[in-house]
Amino acid sequence: MAARNYALSRIGYEASKGYDFDDTASYQVYKGYNSSYQNVINAVNQTRGEVLLYNDKLVETLYSAWHGGISENSENVWGNTVPYLRSVADPYESDAWPNVNRIYSNAQIQAALVSKRYLSSTDTFENLDLSSITRFASGRVSNINIIYKDSAGVEQTKSVTKDNTRTFLGLPSNLYTVSYDSINGSYTFSGKGNGHGLGMSQIGARNRASAGQNYNEILKFYYQGTYIQNLILKASLGSITQSSSSLYLGNTVSFNASGTNGNGYGYLFKFIIKNDSNIVFTQDYSSSANLNYVPLNSGNYTAEIYIKDNFSISDYDDMKVVPFSIYNPLTLSSFSKDIQNVFTGDTVTLSSAVSGGSGSGVQYKYTVVKDGQIIAARDYDASRSFSFIPAVSGNYEAYVYAVDPITKNEYDVTRKITFGVIQRASIASVTASGNLYEGKMVTLNSISTVSDSTNINYKYEVYNNGSFLTSNSFSKSSQFSFTPSNPGVYTIKVYEKDGLSSRIYDSIKQFDITIISKPLILSTFPLSYGMTSKDVASLQNALIKLGYPLSGATGYFGSQTKDTVISFQKSRGLTADGIVGNLTYKTLNDTLIQKAGIKNLTF
C-alpha cells in the first residue's frame, strides 16, 4: 500500500527526464520481479486497486527503515506541514544504530563537510559546537553549529538544521547524542533509528504485523487521519459456507460461495483444493459457486476460492483461503476398568481412549447397567474417565459412547465390557475366650459375614493400655491367641480381607477386654508355720474359696493352716511340707482361676 501510494504520488516528478521515478533509493529501491516472493505477490494481489487517502487526496506515504521509537513531524524535516505526517511514539521499535556508534576524527569531518559542500576546500574545520545543539520534541537534533575558519583565517559559524543534521555527516538518523574526546580528537555519535523518521517505520510495521495488526491498522497509525479506498470496481467474495456430515475420510466436503460488488453482471468462481502444499483438485472458472469434493487422504487441507467479475481481465478480483482437516474415522482404542476384582463398596473407574478423529474435544458418555437397570451414568463430557461405587454384588455391564464434535451423530463409537461384583465380606463378630487373668491365654475367634468364601484372611493386633503388644500377618485362620502378662485394658483390632480384594483390608473391628490380676497375691515367700501377716490372711481366704475347712482368715499360720496347706499340696501332687513356696503359690492361683471358669465374650 505504501509503495503503491508513493509511486502514484510521484507521477510527473521527473517528466523532464522522460520518466516518473527510478528504482534507486532516491525514490523506492526495486530489484525486479521474483516469483518466489509469494508473500509480496499475495500482498499486491490482495490489495489490488487500494490506495491511502487523506481528504480524498493521495497520501505521500513516506517511510524509512526505522524511527528509533518515535516518528517526526514533516515540518521538522523538510519545512512544510503535512497533517498526516505527525510525530507519534512507536513502542513496537526502538532500535539503536547498526554497529553501534559512529566515530569521526576532525580530518574525517573536514573531508565530509567539504564533500557535501558545507565547507569550501579553503575552509578549515575547527569543531562542532555541542552547546549549540537543540532538539525537536521527538528528541531529534534540530540544530548543530559548525565552527570553522575561512581562507583568511577568520572564525566562522554555520548552522546545520532539520534533516541536514542527519545527512551532513551521513549519519543513520538525527536522533542521536554526540560527545567529544579531547584526547583522541574525535566525536562519537550514538543514536537510534535509520532514515528521516517521517511516516511509516518498516521495522515497526513488521513488528506490528507479527503482533497481529493488519495493514489497515498499521497504515492508520503511521499516517494519521487517513483511510483506504479501492479505485477499481472488482468483485469480492461474500459468504463462504462449508458443509459436511463429518470431516472424516470418505465423506463429501461441500463449499458454497457468494459474490458482492463488481459491475453487477455476474461472477466467475474458481476452486483449488490443496493437501498440505500439493494441489489435489481444481475446478476452473465457471458461474457455479458450488464445489463438492471427496478427499482421498486424511490430513490438512486448504480450499482456495477465487472470484472475478465477468468483465474482469485480472487473474482474480478476490480470493479467500479456507483451511480444513480430514480425519481418519474415530475408533475406541481402549475401554477398561481400573480394578481387576471388584467388590461392593469399591470405587470403580472406567477409562477410555480413542484414536483417529479430530484429535481434540472428543466427548465421552458412560452408562452402567445391572439386571437391565441403569445404576450409574454420566452424560457427554470431555473427561475420559468415570467413577462409580457398586452397592450390591452381581453381574454388571458398562457402556462407553464417544462422539467427535465435528460430527452431528448421537455417538460415533461405542463399546461394552461386562464384569462381576463380589460381595465384600465384613467381620460379623469376634469371640474372646479365656480365664481373662494375667498370665492366662486368651483365644480370639472371628466370624465373617461371607460364610461361603474360601479366601477370607484375618489379622489381629493387640495393644495394652495404648502400647502395641503383638500381632500376626494376614492368615486364613480365624483364630489368634495371646497371653497377657499384666492386668489392665487390652485393645483388640481385627482386620478382615478377601484374598481377591485390592484393599489393604476390607473391614475392621475394635474392642477392649479387661484382664484382671491373679486371684492370690503374696508379697512374702515362703509362708510357713508360726508366721503372722496379711499375706497369711490372703492365703487362708484363698483356701476357704477352694472349699477347705478353715475356721477363718486370722492372719496367723498355725497348725490348722499348715495341715490345710499339706492337704492342698497332696491333692495337687506337690511336696507336702506345709510351706507355701513359689510352686505352691502358682498352683494355688491356677486352681483359683480354674475354679473361676472360662469367660466367653462376644463383640
Radius of gyration: 52 Å
Integer count of domains: 6
Count of helical regions: 9
In order across it, which strands form the biggest sheet?
20-26-25-22-23
The pLDDT mean sits at: 93
Major beta sheet summary: 5 strands, mixed
User: How far is the N terminus from the C terminus?
Assistant: 93 Å
Organism: Clostridium rhizosphaerae
Domain Two component regulator three Y: 265-326, 357-419, 451-515
Domain Sporulation stage II protein D amidase enhancer LytB N-terminal: 2-54
Pfam family, one: Y_Y_Y
Give a short summary of the structure.
The protein is mostly beta strands and 603 residues long. The chain has six domains: 121 residues, no CATH class; 68 residues, no CATH class; 92 residues, Immunoglobulin-like (Sandwich), CATH 2.60.40.10; 92 residues, Immunoglobulin-like (Sandwich); 89 residues, Immunoglobulin-like; 65 residues, Muramoyl-pentapeptide Carboxypeptidase, domain 1, CATH 1.10.101.10. The protein has nine helices and 34 strands.
Notes on the protein architecture:
Helices cover 15% and strands 39% of the residues. It is mainly beta and 603 residues long. It folds into six domains: 2-90 and 199-230, no CATH class; 102-169, no CATH class; 235-326, Sandwich (Immunoglobulin-like), CATH 2.60.40.10; 331-422, Immunoglobulin-like (Sandwich); 427-515, Sandwich (Immunoglobulin-like); 534-598, PGBD-like superfamily/PGBD (Muramoyl-pentapeptide Carboxypeptidase, domain 1, Orthogonal Bundle).
